[in-house]
């Protein structure tokens, strides 16, 4: 048992902190810290700055731009990035399809996609959920039927986050309707400019346009755009969702927002009720961060530790709780979400309620928190 | 940053677990032991002494082993796992720890050597009617009559206060501040009674009772008491973690074996989800307790105070959650004294109220909440 970081890891941490706070655009970081929405250009710029320094996809294989880091160093990289207000690399690229292609793709697909994926030259969207396939993902009904050298895709995907920016979409499709539902699924990479593919916005309760429906009407996809073997899509999806759960607890970001809440509260932070609420949140976050460190220390060969479900579950609950605290701090000003530059209210207050409403998503995506409870009950407790 | 035990620590855990499984592996053994005075097993206590556990925190010069907080924590976790009634934290960590921290060389060698060998039981007589976990004393006062000290007032509840040969008593000093005194158990008027968790506590009445100052006479030892209480809180947290682990294991095992409506209870998601939430509470509390144990090694009293409060708060929340749900998920059987799980909740409740409950710790943390921007566990060297 040893509390302190090794000298090497301490140095690594300082290097990360220095890079993130000096090399990434101050404007972008301030926008993140102040809770404003980022433009596509800002997200791309930030990821390209990271990628140039080898910091966009450190968890990929080294031949495709990854770093030979320990799990603890990856954790430090992630935490310091969030702490500094650097937008984390686009999850669809860096955490989802990149590792999948590196693991399951042919050499041709790797060469074609991985460098551009790391550099966000291609913006990926995720084509998993459907209107009738949410947590029960294997029930998906979008079909792909072979026609000559092409697959012809028909169906509908939904909850496609930032699909309005997407260049390509990695899509789970049903390629065999006659077998057990998990056994008839494959993964296709689909160019979003293909004829027959339509992206339609879904307006959310925060007033924003973050997610979309994606419709496929006789969309033709070349056969060599399949990742992995025919009908092996469920294995790939489980691999991808397992990765998604790791690092899905945004401890660094939540800590930063809580520290900001405390600073914005000023003298009110010493009022007993508020002080107790903040102190309890800080304690819960500390427990979560330490649990993340324990999971990092014990995960072997990149396999997610089963307790990573705890991180997703509790991490999103705390993220939501801190966003709720921000609304309460803003008080009546929290109503004024549409206020413009001439508003007499403090600017931070405008964003509190939309953020709070938006973050209800956190306990739903990435395997809903009920799915995480099921994983804990089954995998860890054997129930 | 490393949360794993080394080989020697693993061996210690296995040895302690072996000893305690023999003593209390069958819950009925604990039940029988706690029915009769003194409420714990003298035999097990002696075996713990033979294994070196009772001298674990003390220096070798004083008849101890000179082990660190991680080793003490391992013992506490194992005691918690079988809800052992032996007064390890109160006698060794608190009373012994105070003798080690404040006693003269002579007092240390006399008291700690015999504590470590199980020849002498120490009790820490600190709580007073109306007190709430402060490191100070007020109801018991010390009088200095030309270098001859005596104490008057009442201490209650004192864990194993009637069984202990020697009491370490906190008392208000003539010039203010709180001092510590060694009092012969026989010299005080003691009445013992059992507690809901199977333990024994006593009312200790002092009436111009002769007492020997621990260490230099007349010195205010409030800070030393506070530091030892903080260490005790972290060790109690370790004990609670052990108890919670087993309470959860008992619950999951029961959900798998108990059938209602013709199917095992584990087929009902309403129940398995609650077990999953118990696991989450336990994991988070474990992380904080392990971290706090490592903070003790840093030796910084301010950092230890903070860590003790943080671990105390998390263990309070988790202990109540796990204890309450363990009984609820068992149903009626969990209410019975014959069945183990209810005793786990009793012990968790006792442990939380021994050295400070969740509200107590949260109050302290809330007062200090504006002292820092954020918390950085990796910054502590």
From TrEMBL, chain A:
InterPro entries in the cross-refs: Acyl-CoA_Oxase/DH_mid-dom (IPR006091), Acyl-CoA_Oxase/DH_mid-dom_sf (IPR046373), AcylCo_DH-like_C (IPR036250), AcylCo_DH/oxidase_C (IPR009075), AcylCoA_DH/ox_N (IPR013786), AcylCoA_DH/ox_N_sf (IPR037069), AcylCoA_DH/oxidase_NM_dom_sf (IPR009100), Mycobact_Acyl-CoA_DH (IPR052161)
Does the record's keyword annotation contain Flavoprotein? yes
Pfam families of this UniProt entry?
Acyl-CoA_dh_1, Acyl-CoA_dh_M, Acyl-CoA_dh_N
What keywords are annotated for this sequence in UniProt?
FAD, Flavoprotein, Oxidoreductase
Coiled-coil residue windows: none
Highest taxon, organism lineage: Bacteria
All residue ranges annotated as the Acyl-CoA dehydrogenase/oxidase N-terminal domain in the record: 7-119
> Which cofactors does this gene product need?
FAD
Where would one find the signal peptide in this protein?
none
The record, for Gene3D superfamilies, names: Acyl-CoA dehydrogenase/oxidase, N-terminal domain, Butyryl-CoA Dehydrogenase, subunit A, domain 2, Butyryl-CoA Dehydrogenase, subunit A, domain 3
Domain Acyl-CoA oxidase/dehydrogenase middle, residue spans? 127-219
Acyl-CoA dehydrogenase/oxidase C-terminal domain span: 231-380
For this chain, the family text in UniProt reads: Belongs to the acyl-CoA dehydrogenase family.
Name of this protein: Acyl-CoA dehydrogenase family protein
Q: Which organism is it from?
A: Nocardioides cremeus
From TrEMBL, chain B:
Entry-linked Gene3D superfamilies: Acyl-CoA dehydrogenase/oxidase, N-terminal domain, Butyryl-CoA Dehydrogenase, subunit A, domain 2, Butyryl-CoA Dehydrogenase, subunit A, domain 3
Look up the EC number in the record and give it: 1.-.-.-
Q: Which UniProt keywords apply?
A: FAD, Flavoprotein, Oxidoreductase
Name its co-factor(s).
FAD
Identify the SUPFAM superfamilies for this entry: Acyl-CoA dehydrogenase C-terminal domain-like, Acyl-CoA dehydrogenase NM domain-like
Residue ranges constituting the Acyl-CoA dehydrogenase/oxidase N-terminal domain according to the UniProt record: 7-119
Asked if the record carries the keyword Oxidoreductase, the reply is: yes
Instruction: Provide the GO MF annotations for this entry.
Output: oxidoreductase activity
Q: Where is the Acyl-CoA dehydrogenase/oxidase C-terminal domain?
A: 225-368
- Coiled-coil stretches, from where to where? none
Record PANTHER family: ACYL-COA DEHYDROGENASE, ACYL-COA DEHYDROGENASE FADE28
Q: Its family? A: Belongs to the acyl-CoA dehydrogenase family.
Kindly provide the name given to this protein in its UniProt entry.
Acyl-CoA dehydrogenase family protein
Organism, per UniProt?
A: Nocardioides cremeus
């Amino acid at each position: 048992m040893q509390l302190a970081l090794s000298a090497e890891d301490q140095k690594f941490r300082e290097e990360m902190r220095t890079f993130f706070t000096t090399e990434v655009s101050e404007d972008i970081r301030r926008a993140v810290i102040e809770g404003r929405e980022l433009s596509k250009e800002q997200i791309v710029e930030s990821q390209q700055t990271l990628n140039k320094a080898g910091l966009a996809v450190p968890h990929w294989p080294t031949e495709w731009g990854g770093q030979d880091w320990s799990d603890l160093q990856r954790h430090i990289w992630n935490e310091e990035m969030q702490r500094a207000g650097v937008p984390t690399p686009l999850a669809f690229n860096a955490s989802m399809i990149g590792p999948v292609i590196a693991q399951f793709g042919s050499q041709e697909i790797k060469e074609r996609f991985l460098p551009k994926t790391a550099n966000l030259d291609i913006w990926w969207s995720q084509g998993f959920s459907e209107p009738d396939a949410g947590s029960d993902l294997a029930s998906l009904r979008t079909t792909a039927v072979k026609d000559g050298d092409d697959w012809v895709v028909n169906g509908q995907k939904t909850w496609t986050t930032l699909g309005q920016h997407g260049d390509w979409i990695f899509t789970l499709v049903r390629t065999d309707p006659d077998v057990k539902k998990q056994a008839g699924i494959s993964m296709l990479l689909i160019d979003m400019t293909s004829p027959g593919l339509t992206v339609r916005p879904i307006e959310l309760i925060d007033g924003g346009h973050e997610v979309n429906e994606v419709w496929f009407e006789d969309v033709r996809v070349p056969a060599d755009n399949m990742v992995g073997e025919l009908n092996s899509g469920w294995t790939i999806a489980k691999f991808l969702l397992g990765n998604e759960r790791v690092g899905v607890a945004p401890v660094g970001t939540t800590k930063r927002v809580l520290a900001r809440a405390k600073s914005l509260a000023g003298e009110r932070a010493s009022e007993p009720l508020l002080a107790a609420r903040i102190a309890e949140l800080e304690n819960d976050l500390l427990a979560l961060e330490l649990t993340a460190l324990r999971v990092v220390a014990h995960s072997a060969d990149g396999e997610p530790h089963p307790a990573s479900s705890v991180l997703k579950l509790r991490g999103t609950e705390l993220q939501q709780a801190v966003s709720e605290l921000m609304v309460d701090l803003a008080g009546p000003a929290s109503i004024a979400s549409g206020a413009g530059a001439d508003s007499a209210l403090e600017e931070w207050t405008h964003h509190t309620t939309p953020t709070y409403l938006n973050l209800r998503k956190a306990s739903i995506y990435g395997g809903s928190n009920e799915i995480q409870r099921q994983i804990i009950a089954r995998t860890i407790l054997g129930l | 940053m490393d949360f794993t035990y080394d080989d020697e620590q693993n061996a210690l855990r296995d040895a302690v677990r072996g000893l305690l499984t023999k003593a209390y592996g069958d819950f009925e053994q604990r039940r029988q032991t706690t029915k009769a005075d003194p409420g714990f097993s003298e035999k097990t206590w002696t075996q713990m002494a033979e294994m070196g556990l009772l001298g674990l925190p003390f220096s070798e010069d004083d008849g101890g082993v000179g082990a660190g907080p991680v080793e003490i924590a391992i013992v506490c976790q194992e005691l918690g796992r079988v809800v052992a009634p032996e007064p390890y934290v109160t006698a060794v960590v608190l009373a012994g720890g105070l003798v080690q921290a404040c006693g003269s060389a002579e007092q240390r060698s006399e008291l700690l050597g015999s504590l470590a060998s199980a020849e002498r039981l120490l009790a820490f007589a600190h709580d007073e009617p109306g007190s709430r976990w402060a490191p100070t004393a007020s109801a018991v006062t010390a009088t200095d009559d030309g270098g001859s000290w005596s104490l008057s007032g009442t201490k209650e509840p004192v864990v194993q206060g009637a069984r202990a040969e020697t009491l370490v008593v906190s008392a208000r000093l003539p010039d203010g501040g709180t001092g510590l005194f060694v009092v012969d158990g026989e010299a005080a008027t003691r009445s013992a009674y059992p507690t809901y968790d199977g333990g024994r506590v006593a009312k200790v009445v002092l009436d111009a009772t002769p007492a020997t100052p621990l260490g230099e006479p007349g010195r205010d030892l409030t800070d030393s008491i506070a530091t030892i209480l903080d260490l005790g809180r972290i060790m109690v947290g370790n004990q609670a973690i052990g108890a919670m682990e087993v309470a959860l294991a008992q619950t999951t095992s029961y959900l798998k074996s108990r059938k209602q409506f013709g199917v095992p209870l584990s087929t009902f998601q309403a129940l398995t989800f609650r077990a999953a939430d118990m696991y989450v509470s336990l994991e988070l509390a474990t992380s904080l307790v392990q971290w706090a144990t490592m903070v003790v090694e840093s030796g910084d009293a301010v950092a230890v105070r903070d860590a003790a409060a943080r671990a105390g708060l998390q263990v309070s929340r988790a202990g109540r959650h796990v204890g309450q749900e363990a009984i609820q998920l068992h149903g009626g059987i969990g209410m019975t004294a014959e069945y183990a799980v209810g005793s786990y909740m009793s012990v968790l409740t006792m442990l939380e109220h021994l050295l400070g409950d969740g509200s107590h710790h949260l109050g302290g943390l809330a007062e200090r909440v504006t002292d820092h921007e954020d918390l950085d566990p990796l910054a502590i060297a």
